[in-house]
């Protein structure tokens, strides 16, 4: 049964119901799932704790709602279509029946390795079907997966292993990425030198490169799977048992483990998938995200598969072997819904329209955008050249913490406006707050985006540190979830996300804490202090600009800059490497020792004429020195 909305008045009607009687509303949506035991109560919550529970005491297994549920009706339908990095290599299709058997087999493999309910499993893998199989196998046995983006460094991986106290790591020998191969197993080996919780490593063979295997600890995926039964009885989980941990950056310190639970997340991802994309049975859907990010979790794996959809999984990058690769894949599989990030659109826009010409893209019905604000120019390019002005664009605003899409048009139903995420989905009660903590009522207002009422897909805690969850999201505005984003509600009541208002920068749709990058820079032995800000970047949305005070020793500036970039690469990974590094004699600090980031942002973005009030600075002259040494 589908809970799809079909008309704009239907949307307003559903929205109204979701606000006046939220429990009744979500109970109705939840009714269409398979529960081993129904809930006693729909919702219990307070945003002070915070304490949020959905579908209390209900029992389920999310994979039964993906696998068993579709086995008889959709058994022969493709669940996952995999397109490899190299277009010459043959792709793979897994039907719902095949997916069922593969998940069952790997569930048995994990159980044989003594993985139990509640154990943490790190997935550090390429974009191959086995990564999705691994996630689902964990969910099936009640283990908690934590996918780590395979571009992260061994240090970053080690931090996540330590924080989650993972018992198992699932990885590959190497990854293909465009024309490169990345030695993934070596990164895992390095990370495991400094961690102690991991007992088992299972290695999926992808690139056939040589790897070292530690006897007793490391095993080949294919060897462990050989002869293992391909049926398995799903473990019963509670609605509020942990489904996964996903690490994400915040404005301070190290990444935090966002925790999602089984029942509410299941209900929310399927509901939002069907409604936002207006998925119809038989459609082919493609989200280009990596499973290392929340978009891959909710809208490659869980949402689409819960809906019985065909979900494409692509191993490669948009520009390999050429900038027409996305469009070749759209034509090859007759993709109906295509979901990508503004940074990818802008990167392809730079190649012009020639790479699109050979393809007809007739199958496309809906285009999606996620990860960062989409600028109007990119929106129009996407709309005109990819969607041929025929396909609605759903600009979907949400976060790792929200679990699923929160503000978005419903494809073909909600009238769109370039760069606007438009209206909240049913169940989502937004509030715009001014700096004094007052809610701004009415239209044509701008402020900080908060959410007033719980929704089933929301985070429950940050792993191992509930206080941090409270301080980060529930302390800024009493009784509200604070998103960290600025927003405008225009004269039509439409929402436009303006970007982060905290010290989080968004580089190519990847969230990065400025403090996190600074900490990495400071690891270089000659660095005394650093300050990192974002600046507008043509393709990436935001670039990273680092101001660094160094002891130069006998290095040239260029040498030092390269060494600092290498350090960041090693500590976090290539995505955090600063685009520009300026060696400075000092930083603009107030008398109380606070760095005035406002000034550093202005210099980075090149607006040098008006620095605002600098009278509270300890050493106002430092500003001129910084302006003079600015990196173009
Ligand atoms: C899903 C995802 C979340 C942050 C979020 C916001 C930005 C995401 C956006 C958007 C404007 C959109 N963001 N979607 N900004 N318009 N459609 O990206 O999760 O990686 O946790 O990032 O991304 O700033 O706060 P995550």
TrEMBL record:
Q: Where is the AMP-binding enzyme C-terminal domain?
A: 516-594
Pfam family, any one: ACAS_N
Q: What organism, scientifically named, is this protein from?
A: Negadavirga shengliensis
Q: What is this protein called?
A: Acetate--CoA ligase
NCBIfam families linked to this entry: Ac_CoA_lig_AcsA, PRK00174.1
For this chain, the family text in UniProt reads: Belongs to the ATP-dependent AMP-binding enzyme family.
> GO terms for molecular function, please?
acetate-CoA ligase activity
- Could you say which EC number(s) this protein's record lists? 6.2.1.1
Q: Which UniProt keywords apply?
A: Acetylation, ATP-binding, Ligase, Nucleotide-binding
């Amino acid at each position: 049964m589908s809970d799809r909305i079909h008309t704009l008045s239907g949307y307003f009607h559903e929205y109204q119901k979701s606000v006046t009687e939220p429990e009744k509303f979500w109970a109705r949506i939840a009714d269409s799932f398979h529960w081993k035991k129904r809930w006693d109560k729909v919702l219990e919550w307070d945003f002070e704790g915070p304490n949020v529970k959905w579908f209390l005491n209900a029992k389920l297994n999310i994979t039964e709602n993906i696998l068993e549920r579709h086995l008889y009706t959709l058994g022969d339908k493709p669940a996952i279509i995999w397109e490899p990095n190299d277009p010459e290599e043959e792709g793979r299709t897994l039907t719902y029946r095949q997916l069922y058997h593969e998940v069952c087999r790997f569930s048995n493999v994990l159980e044989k390795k003594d993985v139990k309910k509640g154990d943490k499993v790190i997935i550090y893998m390429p974009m191959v079907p086995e990564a999705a199989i691994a996630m689902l196998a964990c969910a099936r046995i009640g283990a908690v997966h934590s996918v780590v983006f395979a571009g992260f460094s061994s240090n970053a991986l080690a931090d996540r292993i330590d924080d989650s106290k993972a018992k198992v790591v699932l990885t590959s020998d190497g990854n293909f990425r465009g024309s490169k191969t990345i030695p993934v197993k070596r990164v895992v080996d390095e990370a495991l030198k400094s961690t102690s919780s991991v007992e088992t490593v299972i290695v999926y063979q992808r690139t056939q490169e040589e790897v070292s295997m530690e006897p007793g600890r490391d095993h080949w995926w294919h060897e462990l799977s050989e002869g293992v039964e391909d049926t398995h009885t799903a473990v019963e989980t509670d609605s509020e048992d942990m489904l996964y941990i996903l690490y994400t950056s915040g404005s301070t310190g190290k990444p935090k483990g966002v925790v999602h639970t089984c029942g509410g997340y299941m209900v929310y991802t399927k509901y939002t998938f069907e409604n936002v994309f207006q998925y119809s049975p038989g459609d082919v859907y493609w989200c280009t995200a990596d499973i290392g990010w929340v978009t891959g979790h909710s809208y490659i794996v869980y949402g689409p598969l819960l809906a019985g959809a065909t979900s494409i999984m692509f191993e490669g990058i948009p520009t390999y072997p050429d900038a027409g690769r996305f469009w070749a894949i759209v034509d090859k599989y007759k993709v109906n819904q295509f979901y990508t990030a503004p940074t990818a659109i802008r990167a392809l826009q730079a190649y012009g329209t020639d790479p699109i010409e050979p393809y007809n893209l007739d199958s496309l019905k809906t285009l999606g955008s996620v990860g960062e604000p989409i600028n109007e120019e990119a929106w129009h390019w996407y709309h005109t050249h990819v969607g041929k002005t025929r396909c609605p664009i759903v600009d979907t605003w949400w976060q790792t913490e929200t679990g699923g899409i929160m503000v978005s048009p419903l494809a073909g139903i909600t009238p769109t406006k370039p760069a606007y995420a438009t209206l909240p989905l049913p169940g989502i009660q937004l509030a715009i707050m001014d700096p004094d903590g007052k809610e701004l009522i009415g239209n044509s207002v701008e402020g900080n985006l908060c959410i007033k009422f719980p929704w089933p897909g929301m985070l429950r805690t940050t792993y191992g540190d509930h206080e941090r969850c409270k301080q980060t999201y529930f302390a800024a505005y009493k009784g509200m979830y604070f998103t960290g984003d600025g927003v405008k509600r225009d004269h039509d009541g439409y929402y436009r996300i303006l970007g982060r208002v905290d010290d989080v920068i968004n580089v190519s749709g990847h969230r990065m804490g400025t403090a996190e990058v600074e900490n990495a820079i400071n690891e270089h032995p000659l660095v005394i202090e650093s300050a990192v800000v974002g600046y507008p970047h043509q393709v990436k949305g935001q670039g990273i600009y680092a101001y660094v005070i160094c002891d130069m020793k006998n290095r040239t500036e260029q040498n030092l800059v390269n060494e600092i970039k290498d350090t960041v690469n090693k500590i976090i990974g290539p995505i955090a490497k600063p685009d520009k590094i300026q060696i400075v004699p000092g930083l603009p600090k107030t008398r109380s020792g606070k760095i005035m980031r406002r000034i550093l942002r202005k210099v980075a973005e090149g607006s040098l004429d008006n620095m605002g009030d600098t009278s509270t600075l300890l050493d106002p002259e430092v500003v001129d020195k910084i302006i003079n040494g600015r990196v173009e």
